[in-house]
Specification:
Blueprint lengths: L5 E2 L5 E2 L1 E4 L2 E4 L21 H4 L5 H4 L16 E2 L3 H11 L10 E2 L4 H5 L27 E9 L4 E8 L6 E6 L9 E2 L1
Antiparallel strand pairs: 1-2, 3-4, 5-10, 6-9, 7-8, 8-9
């Protein structure tokens, strides 16, 4: 049931939240193993607060299939670009272009923040340009989608405290971004 805690292979528990027709993790993934117990690489600014950052290939657990389970627990998957758009358009019906690039002219970012009404509760955990480092760790957070864009880029979402909207763009797969899993 959505709203009940979810536990990963490592024993980390996560809050879940229903938003529109979807059930999302209300916290960033922290795991160091996939659902089968295989080790996965991550790095952290502060794993206990923000969760782990993963390269896209790690988040996808070696596949390139849109909507794949990736490193999410069994019964959950790495949200596709289309899944992210369902979330966005359920919060703001003015979101009608699933292929937009850049910042939305909405308050979705505010609505999904820790002060927002939806319980998604994104935190400004930053991201990594690669390797075990934290870049911009106190004003933004980036999330992977399972949607491949090119051999070097995948679709992502960005929240930033300086903007009320949400940013959709294609970013380098070697960057370290966070993961929110979506219930199948």
């Amino acid at each position: 049931e959505c709203g009940e805690a979810l536990t990963d292979f490592d024993g980390n528990t996560y809050s879940t939240v229903a938003i529109g027709s979807q059930c999302w993790m209300a916290e960033n993934l922290k795991t160091t193993h996939d659902a089968d117990g295989e080790s996965v690489a991550r790095w952290c600014c502060d794993c206990s607060t923000y969760g782990g950052m993963y390269e896209w290939s790690v988040a996808m657990n070696g596949t390139e299939t849109d909507g794949a389970q990736g490193i999410c627990p069994t019964g959950w998957h790495l949200p596709s670009d289309a899944d992210w758009f369902v979330l966005e358009s359920s919060i703001d019906s003015s979101m009608t272009d699933p292929d937009y690039i850049g910042w939305s002219d909405t308050t979705i970012g505010e609505e999904l923040s820790t002060e927002g009404a939806y319980g998604f509760d994104w935190l400004t955990g930053g991201f990594s340009y690669g390797g075990d480092r934290c870049d911009y760790d106190y004003d933004r957070v980036l999330y992977w989608s399972s949607s491949d864009h090119s051999s070097t880029e995948a679709v992502s979402r960005l929240f930033n405290t300086a903007f009320s909207g949400i940013n959709r763009d294609m970013r380098d797969k070697s960057f370290g971004f966070y993961v929110r899993c979506l219930k199948d």
